[in-house]
């Protein structure tokens, strides 16, 4: 497998966590979203990923984009350890939380959106994340155990940790979200979340390495 990734991309981080949890070794090809006007806009990369986003995963003779689609494929083809609960209700909750973050928060504060906002981009990002986290905190009060859905790591957790990192980068006040904060802390203690962390990647700038 070959993963095209950017160290600070939260969507790439989700996939790196999934690959680590499932013990899948891969080659990483960095795609710098800022350098050269954005390496994702090159003709070569666009041919592989028409949306010109990261991540892209080449695996089993196919090329996949969109982080949740990639994670679902890994779940279907390499089911252990599972990232979706067996219980249908918990499975739906994990998907709901993943979509809440991947569709309802992250796209509103990603690089391409913020570039359109202009000088108020930090304030915009803070508002989008806070609004999403207010709803997510309420949801997690009903679904959480040690992690987002009960006591097993799920797809929801793969989305949560990178989004909290984004919140911290944009200096969002996390004090109103004790459940999110508690789960995030527990997840960051797991090896798969450590090795996939933005501070540990081949393309992490020296000043940002752990």
- What value does the average pLDDT take? 96
Helix tally? Answer: 9
Task: Give the strand order, joined by hyphens, for the main sheet.
Answer: 2-1-3-4
What would the CATH topology of the largest domain be?
Glutathione S-transferase Yfyf (Class Pi), Chain A, domain 2
Strand content: 5-15%
Specify the biggest β-sheet: 4 strands, mixed
Question: How do the strands and helices of this protein lay out in sequence?
Answer:
Layout: E1 2-5, H1 10-21, E2 27-30, H2 43-48, E3 56-59, E4 62-65, H3 67-77, H4 88-104, H5 111-117, H6 121-143, H7 155-169, H8 178-187, H9 191-195
Parallel strand pairs: 1-2
Antiparallel strand pairs: 1-3, 3-4
Helix pairs in contact: 1-3, 1-7, 4-6, 4-7, 5-6, 7-8
Model description:
It is a single chain. The chain has helices at 10-21, 43-48, 67-77, 88-104, 111-117, 121-143, 155-169, 178-187, 191-195; strands at 2-5, 27-30, 56-59, 62-65. With 210 residues, the chain is an alpha+beta fold. The protein has 2 domains: 2-81, Glutaredoxin, CATH 3.40.30.10; 88-193, Glutathione S-transferase Yfyf (Class Pi), Chain A, domain 2 (Up-down Bundle), CATH 1.20.1050. A 4-stranded mixed beta sheet has the order 2-1-3-4, covered by helices on one side. Helix 1 (10-21) packs parallel to helix 3, helix 4 packs antiparallel against helix 6 (121-143) and helix 7 packs across helix 8. The two termini are 26 Å apart.
């Amino acid at each position: 497998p070959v993963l095209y990734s950017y160290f600070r991309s939260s969507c790439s981080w989700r996939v790196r966590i999934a690959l680590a949890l499932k013990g899948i070794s891969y080659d990483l090809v960095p795609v710098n979203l800022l350098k050269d006007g954005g390496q994702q806009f090159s003709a070569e990369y666009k041919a592989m990923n028409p949306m010109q986003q990261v991540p892209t995963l080449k695996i089993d003779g196919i090329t996949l984009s969109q982080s949740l689609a990639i994670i679902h494929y890994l779940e279907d083809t390499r089911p252990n350890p599972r990232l979706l609960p067996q219980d249908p209700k918990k499975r739906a909750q994990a998907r709901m939380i993943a979509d809440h973050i991947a569709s309802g928060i992250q796209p509103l504060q990603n690089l391409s959106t913020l570039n359109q906002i202009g000088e108020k981009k930090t304030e915009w990002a803070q508002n989008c994340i806070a609004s999403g986290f207010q709803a997510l905190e309420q949801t997690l009060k009903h679904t959480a155990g040690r992690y987002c859905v009960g006591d097993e790591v799920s797809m929801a957790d793969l989305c949560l940790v990178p989004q909290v990192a984004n919140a911290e980068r944009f200096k969002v006040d996390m004090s109103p979200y004790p459940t999110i904060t508690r789960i995030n802390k527990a997840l960051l203690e797991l090896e798969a979340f450590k090795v996939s962390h933005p501070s540990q990647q081949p393309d992490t700038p020296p000043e940002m390495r752990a």
